[in-house]
Write a structure and sequence with these properties.
By secondary structure, the protein is mainly α. It has one domain (2-314). The chain has 16 helices and no strands. The chain has helices at 2-13, 21-51, 56-63, 70-81, 90-98, 103-115, 118-128, 130-153, 162-170, 179-214, 219-224, 231-239, 246-258, 263-275, 278-284, 290-314. Helix 12 (231-239) packs across helix 16 (290-314). It is found in: Cell membrane. Keywords: Cell membrane, Membrane, Transmembrane, Transmembrane helix.
Length: 315
């Protein structure tokens, strides 16, 4: 329904052609703006209500296990069953941080949720069989867990924006309230957070729409095509500025495979687009300070490169 409305506004009311770059970019912008804000509102509200039933200490016990790495594994597995795109996973990430969950554990979730998803799994299963699909899940989990462990070991909590910790302090105060009061709290919290981050969201989606509409379709094939030993890192570098979910990137993935691009290179590109994106960076900049944001992107990008080379070796 949202896509139909976006098409109506851009191609019907505005009269732009679906084949034009401007029309394609604006259609992407309208549709993704509606979709992201709907997801943000729904997810933030739901997380706020759920969090009102869990004190920070109880939430911390669920994901921050006494045994090393268990919290990262649980968070990465949780990410698989909550298949959000990179931007819409951010509100849950904020809720985890505010609830007192260790920073490394929250990053494991932030990576796995958009990276390991059912659409990519079905695609790989259909193209290459269940073994390759299983390797994809395993590789995604390893990336998410490793990224979370590395960031957790670096002890970078001081690079989270100060307001996040301030919200965390007051989170337990609503624990004994009635359900109506919890809903009111969730409503007020959602409105407050959206007022704070909406400009970043719009700018991020706008940048993604521009790249979507105006980036040459053969850009990846041109620079990271078959025979280039640096194809995997180049695919990641090209993929990071883009923004899409797995469903949106599949047509490009299929076209690249048909033109002979190595599977590992294509998967690295898909992982970079779905798990790392410029719009996500813009939104996260309102939550993370620059040093932590760069550390997150650098760690995940390096892990994706390793996975891409691994797939190229075994396929």
């Amino acid at each position: 329904m949202l896509k139909s409305f976006a098409d109506y506004v851009v191609f019907g009311v505005m009269g732009l052609s679906p084949q034009s770059r401007l029309g394609d970019a604006l259609d992407f912008f309208v549709y993704d703006t509606l979709k992201i804000f709907l997801l943000l509102t729904t997810i933030v509200f739901a997380v706020a209500v759920i969090r009102s039933y869990f004190s920070p200490e109880r939430t911390r016990r669920i994901l921050s296990h006494n045994r090393e790495y268990v919290g990262n594994v649980l968070a990465a597995l949780l990410g698989i069953v909550t298949p959000f795109c990179s931007c819409s996973a951010v509100p849950l990430f904020i809720g985890f941080v505010e609830s007192g969950i260790p920073l490394g554990v929250t990053f494991s979730f932030l990576v796995s949720s958009p990276m390991v998803n059912e659409v990519a799994l079905i695609m790989l299963w259909g193209l290459f069989g269940w073994k390759i699909a299983a390797i994809y899940i395993g590789a995604g989990l390893v990336v998410a867990i490793a990224a979370g462990v590395v960031i957790g070991r670096l002890k970078m909590e001081k690079y989270v924006q100060d307001y996040v910790w301030e919200v965390k302090v007051g989170a337990a105060e609503i624990e004994q309230q009635s359900f109506a009061q919890k809903l009111a709290y969730a409503r007020d919290y959602t409105i407050s957070l959206l007022k704070m981050i909406w400009p970043y969201v719009v700018v991020g989606i706008g940048a993604g729409a521009f790249i979507h509409g105006y980036a040459p379709a053969d850009l990846l094939l041109q620079y990271a095509g078959p025979g280039n030993p640096l194809a995997v890192p180049l695919a990641v570098l090209i993929g990071v500025p883009l923004y899409s979910n797995a469903a949106g990137i599949i047509p490009i993935v299929q076209a690249l495979m048909e033109k002979g691009m190595a599977v590992g290179t294509v998967l690295a590109f898909m992982m970079a687009v779905t798990a790392l994106s410029f719009p996500e960076a813009v939104i996260l900049k309102n939550v993370l300070k620059t040093r932590l944001l760069l550390t997150f992107f650098g760690t995940v990008a390096c892990a994706i490169v390793v996975v891409g080379y691994l797939f190229n070796l075994i396929l």
